[in-house]
Write a structure and sequence with these properties.
The complex is a heterotetramer. Chain B has helices spanning 2-9, 19-30, 35-45, 49-56, 78-82, 85-96, 138-150, and strands at residues 70-75, 109-114, 126-128, 131-133. By secondary structure, chain B is of the alpha+beta class. Chain B has two domains: 2-56, no CATH class; 70-150, 3-Layer(aba) Sandwich (Glutaredoxin), CATH 3.40.30. The longest helix of chain B has 13 residues, at 138-150. In chain D, helix 9 crosses helix 10 (232-246). The chains are: A alpha+beta, B alpha+beta, C alpha/beta, D alpha/beta. Chains in contact: A-B, A-C, A-D, B-D.
Amino acid sequence: MKKVTLTIDGLQLRADEGSTVLQAALANGLYIPNLCNHPDLVPAGLCRVCVVKVDDWKISISCKLPVKEGMVISTEDPEVQRIRKSTVELLVANHPMTCLTCSRDANCELQRVASYVGITQESLKRYRRSVRQLPIDSSNPFFDIDHSKCVLCGICVRTCDELQNINAIDYVRRGVHTTVGTLGNKPITQSCCESCGECVARCPVAALAPKESPISMREVKSVCTYCGVGCGILLGVRGEKVVGVRGDRDNPVNRGSLCVKGRYGFKFINHPDRLTTPLVRKDGVLVPASWDEALERVAANFSEHKGEQFAALASARITNEDNYLIQKFTRAVMQTNNIDHCARL
Amino acid sequence: MEERLQTVLAPYKGKRDMLIPILQQVQAALGYLPDDAMAEIARTTGLPESRVYAVASFYAQFRFTPRGKHTIMVCRGTACHVRGAEKILEETERTLGIVEGETTKDLEYTLETVACIGCCALAPCIMIDEDVEAKLTPKMVSEIITGRNTA
Amino acid sequence: MTNSIAEIGEAATILAVGTNTTQAHPVLALQVKKAARNGARLIVANPKKIDLCRHATLHLQHRPGTDVPLLMGMARVIVDEGLADMAFIQARCEDYEAFVASLADFSPERVAAITGVPAEQIVAAARMYAGYGPASILYCMGITQHSHGTDNVWAVSNLALLTGNLGKFASGVNPLRGQNNVQGSCDMGGLPNVYPGYQQVNDPKVREKFESAWGLSLSPDPGLTLGEVFDRMYDGTIKSLYLVGENPVLTEANANHAIAALKNLDFLVVQDIFLTETALLADVVLPAATFAEKDGTFTNTERRVQRVRQAIAPRGEAKPDWQIVAELAGKMGAKGFDFSGPEEIMVEIASLTPSYGGISYPRLEGAGLQWPCPDKDHPGTPTLHVERFGTASGKAKMIPLAFRDADELPDGEYPLVLTTDRSLFHYHSGSMTRRVAGLEQLNSEELLKINPRDAKALGLADKEMVQVTSRRGTMTVRTSLSQVCPPGLVSMTFHFAESPTNVLTNPARDPVAKIPETKVCAVRVDKIAQP
Amino acid sequence: MTFAEIQAQANLEWEALNNGGRPQITVGTATCGRSAGAMAVVKAFEEELQAKGIDAALVEVGCIGPCYAEPLVNIKKPGWATVSYRNVTAEMAREIVAAFLLGDDPLAKYALGVFGEGEIAGIPNILSTPAFKPQERRVFRNCGTIDPTNINHYIANDGYIGLNKALGMRQEEVVDVMKRSGLRGRGGGGFPAGRKWEAGLKAKGTQKYVVCNADEGDPGAFMDRAVIEGDPHSVLEGMIIAGYTIGADTGYIYVRAEYPLAIRRLERAIQQAHEFGFLGQNILGTNFSFEIRIFPGAGAFVCGESTALTLSIEGKRGMPRVAPRPRTTEVGLYDKPTLLNNVKTFSSAPMIITRGAEWFASVGTEKSTGTAIFALTGKVQNCGLIEVPMGITLRDIIYDIGGGIADGGQFKAVQTGGPSGGCLPESLLDTPIDYDSLDAAGSIMGSGGMVVMDEKTCMVDVARYFLDFTEIESCGQCVPCRLGTKQLLDILKDICSGRGKPEDMDLLYELSHSVHGGSVCGLGQTAANPVLTTLRYFRDEYEAHINDRCCPAKVCKSLISYVIDKEKCVGCTLCAKSCPVQAISGEKKKIHSIDQALCVQCGVCLEKCPKKFSAIACVSPKVKQEES
């Protein structure tokens, strides 16, 4: 990959040819505030928060600006700062001030840019506040859509289009009345939405927010237990409870993407129906028993049915190690090759 | 409605870039764009339903609720504005008992405003269906409308 | 899969046959849609107008069970139009002539008559697939779950070999494995005829290897397959069954027969995480740990072995399956089961399984490894068959094929064809997904997808409860009028215990793979008489 | 038929019409004429000619320009100069037929003037009147003189000569002529047309498009419609020449659906052009083929922006493409090279080719050649469409052509360029009309709207009005335009309703600059111009609103009261009867009074109060209840 050298705020840095100024800056640990940019998506250039000055004369957004050899970029130019500040002030003036009760508090891109450009109560006071009043769409069991918090970065629309190719949502109406919605603004569950939650995962604010977002204490890298694709996941754990799942962006299989089952289908793990003790049938009914009792009963019976009277069915759900031992048990201990599983279903 | 819709859509199977003309023709046929008509347009063209509505709701021409028999468009062009279009609009709203964008209960009139009819020299003016009423005063407006109703 | 998932997005042509990818493999489907978006030609061959058709260049809507004529018809066009990759065929294939001879019966016109796909579409598909490489074939249960599933698979591989679309980047034959570790359980010898790594049980050399490793003698006779096991249970030959993480009461074709077989056992042990419909029949139920409660590895559909890591302690007294088996073996006085943990088990696996030879936990950190990975320095194999095929000669056989229709065809009594598929929101027998309230809300009951025309003829409304009956059983379900099914075809999933689709399905098995024909059976749909 | 034969045939028809020895009556029946009652006049003439058995040609023509005089009728009687009659009614039509066609009395009292050869006592020659003297009719060359539905009329007036000539030139030669003519894009931006055509020619690609922007969205501009309705073939010819020049095979005309007549005229013209071989396969025997399609715009001002317009034709939301991006001439309609010009630009092309670059550049200024067309409206005597040489001053336009301020009012400001333009004060009346001078003054040429305002116009309200427009018309994709115009509007609304704060003026200024610098497209970048220019030239009005809660023009409702002058009121009860909210009380012959709490400032009472009393006055700031 060919490299070019450019200067941002006096800092000289190398960047891949064909990358954008914003990419170059972020790659070099240089933050340029931005809202509608997402690494997985084609730059849209709509929020205008990433404006910079190019070669000391031209104002441009950095997310669509290709790097050029010898380019000189300023993010601190007064004109840039003024445009950036008013733009963010406008967004905040039209955003509900409910951070304390917001699920994205402290993890919100709007908060981040606002504090970066130094928005103050004084500067905000001058503005006429107005927050769009639209009913929250809570039809989906996993996430809510709150238009009053939407900054119209379009990341959800582009995710549903560019990445998922589902197009359940798009821009609706125009101007200040623009919203993200479905045909006729029907509830999201009445659209072709597949509830994959990819848009929710990318929303920079809480316009698309999970219904439950308990804070996990640690994350464990693992593999999704559903279909054969084997998506890399990060299990969010709180105490002895799995409270969330995230796509693993480093995994080559799914690069962070998940489907509705993979992302939201984890609650069976801590479900009350889980079997927690062995059960043994006594007088026709299954009753709890100790491991010893249960295993001895099994051992006793299996010992009498070695060979062709016995068969084992392994599972396509359990690990390789589990399967290996079961077939070893069947072949070595039970002395038969009567082992199969539901590979064919 | 089904048949009318199908006749309009017949020539457009898979023609995604004809969406706007399609919407115009469907609205001409049905008077407005019901949700299920837009869903049918999506199926015919192969566009996502959301895209059909996204485009339809972007343009001022398209309506999603039934319209009155007649449309009164009050011109809000600059010339009309400086010659008192505001007062014309208010008087029209008062006479019809509805506000801009609404339709009278008897489905006789739908009241809209338009950026400019292009009769600036004859400002202020309104357009009732295809006829332009020019050089109006608030008084004339109420007379014209009540006159139409009695006639 | 002969290729990696990421390669699919780079293909110039994709033939997706017998796979409802967006529903059954949603994340892999992203690659298919990405390719289509970037201009790849996507040919969807499916009796139903599935969601993937929205992105398709061409939809071949063939009659269920006519995959062989469809694919052979394409092959015929490719040969006739001189689009075959003769260089590849000469270098790497066998029996080309015999194969070509068998194409005689598959003129586009005749194929059109059999499959219901217009001849010009068959020609167009053939030209696309042969003309724009790299071309990749995706298939799934729609190919395998037939009484002639093996023929279907051969037809697929014939097509790939014929055009040299095998053993190259983004170019190959890619069966999509249904369950998270179905690949792994096969790799591990969870099959009656092979040891881990597909080493034949009836191969003396192999058997000796395992006998010496395990320190005892082993049976030389291949065992019984799943369906056969149930038959032997039914006739009483098999008296004792150890059933781990399966729910055949819902998933077996002709479920009533399966239930009878289970009830006929002397002794049934079920090892699972929930008290499934099958576990209710057990004599002993052993509580297993979920994937989140144990360490180990899964092998995905692209042969990538990845680490599963314990996140939380097992619920209550539940234990990882390997541990249960080890303790059971211990109770039976067996040796060679005292492992400190999965990592140690993997050491033994690697030592006995050539294709896993180079796999060890340390090496699986990060992106995992794609087998074959014969030794500890081998980087793994993203694409199979690059130089040679895994046959004795190293060459791939092209198989002459004839058309065999489905085992059971619609008739006056059972006029409709029932085919089964999966819902995006549920997984297999639903024991896990149906316990997730949100998924249950998004899809809470079985729906019989039926074409509005058929519904009209039967006087059925949308969302009306009806009775569906086959020669084997009957069940009730709610209708869903939908253009997804063409007239004459109805479709259901099998996730819902309260409407067990598999009481209807046909157990007729493929002679080789022993897979039942759950994709085609004849049914009747009746209005439920209102009291 | 060869082009020569086509011409010969057309000239024959034209001659017969003009010098066939029978009287010719032409009535302007473009939209503005119709709304003034032209169709009734046509009907009256038909009936009258019938009744009186007069053999005369009755021709419907496009807009001649002076809308203030509509319906406008020209009568060309053999042996007489052509007489133009103004504000003709059906009644007058009958009178004229009787007096002038049967008799020899031209009815001077109804005449606007005469033109052509000869004079008539008591009627001035139109072209010598101040209203017409400064005008130079080029783009309007045929408007109002030919039947727009008759291609032969166009051909007989040098129509399609340019195309015929161009087809004989190399593409580079056409570009060269266009460049030397100095023609700048008439859509408002003023980008040199020749350079655009050159870019279109040089752009790589086999498939190219020509697009005509007839999405005349500016409130207060309607000249594009007049050109299309009055001379549609001039637009087609320009587009065909452009198509030949850049190597395109398809042209689109994006015209507002609100212009039904214009669309009908275009459809007719396209059909005729096909019949005559000016469109379709192998045009005029060459191997050049070209088709033109009409695309009725669905109503979005932003689609005047070229990238939004092309996306709209593709059936998408008209949201301008975001810079940095390639030019439309490289990546335009369907991502193919696209030459997009305004109606007037295209209709200028044929005469440039026919008469040469030098002829075109012979009028106008060095940097802005040719003529400019304005829709002169607002508080001016003579409203209408005017075509003047670039460089003429605003004062000449308003006071000579426009005949000064209407109703004896006082000039306050003139607004040019529509929502993207600005309001200029008295002090700038001598600014010459050209792209650069208007820019310098803080306004723009724009698409040619020119609205005159008098002392009864509130400049804060005007700014509010334009922001109201841009807020509605913003596509909403970028934050500065979507929320900036809204914020500006909210502030202006507050000021107009007496809730203004002293710091608002600074905020308006600051925001205006950010919206200008931050927005994606021209609409957003210029949205604040009305605010900036009014702030700059009419700051005192802002201060009056904010500090004194007073609207000097007495427009802003929340700041005005209607009061009854006790001395003047005679208790005629007219006002009370007409008040829609019964806010006026008082018995017959008793002094009336207005309940300010009830009054909605509709002004009907003022309108109703007989001039001889004029007892009702409008005052600002508001008065307290007891004072009234």
